[in-house]
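seq:
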Amino acid sequence: MLGLDPNREKMPQEFGKITQKRINEGVDENAAWAQAYYDFCREILMFTEKYICGIKIQMAYFEVLGTPGILVVENLIKLAKERGLVVLIDGKRGDIGTTCEAYATAYLADKSLGADSCTVNPFLGSDGVLPFVKKCETNDRGIFVLVKTSNPSANEFQATIADKIAESVEKWGESTRSKNGFSSVGAVVGATNGKELAHFRSLMPHTWILAPGIGAQGGSLSDVLAVQKKGLGIIIPVSRSVLYAGHGDDFAEKAGEAMETLWKNLSAFPQA
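struct:
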C-alpha cells in the first residue's frame, strides 16, 4: 500500500520553485502547496499503481494546509477509487458518543472524505471504537485499531496494554468476519516489533494486520510475511522509501522502480 505523506522539505526542489512562483503571482500559500502535494502524489500513484492494493493517506500532512489540503484529500480519494484502489485514511481518530459517530460517518460513509477504511485510537475504550465497528457491519468498510505502533517510544505505555487491546480487536471483529476468515476490524502492529508480530497474530487469528515500518524505519519483511495466512492477513504500507526515492524530474519513475523492487522482494517469499 502506497503511503501518501507529502513533505515539502523532501519533495523535489522543482515543486518548491513552482509553488513559490504561484505564491508570487498571488496564489494563497496553502492553496499553492496543496496543488503541489496533489501533483506530487498523483504522479507517484500513476507510476506505482500496478504494484499496490491501495493508498494510505496520512491526514496530518494535508490538514496543516487547512481547507485546500482537505480538498486534496477528497480529490485523491476520488482518483484512487476511479482506479480501483483501496483507500485508507490514517488519522488515528478516537472519541466518544456522538463525536465518535461523527468521525465514523466522516471517514466510513459515502461522504466526500469517505474512504474504505481508517485508523482508530482505542485509548478511550470500546465507546471510542464501536461506532466505527458499526460502520464496518453496515457499510462494508474497515478499520485498523492501534495495537502496537512502530515508533521508538511505543513501549512507554503500549507494552502494558497491547495484549488487552489485541484481544478486544479480535472480539470486536467477530460480527464482521467474511468467508476468507478475516474480519473488517483490523489492527496496527508495526513491522519494527519484529518477532512480536507472531505473538500478536496468535492473539488475533482473524484480524488483518497493518504493519508500517518497512523501508525507512527498518522493519523486517520476513517477520511481517511470517504472520500471513494463505497469503492474506497482512497489509504493508510503504511511504518515505518510495516517495523520496528520486529527487529530480524522474522522481515518479524512481518511485515506481522502488515499489517494483519491494514488490519483487515480496513475491520472493513463500505464502505462509
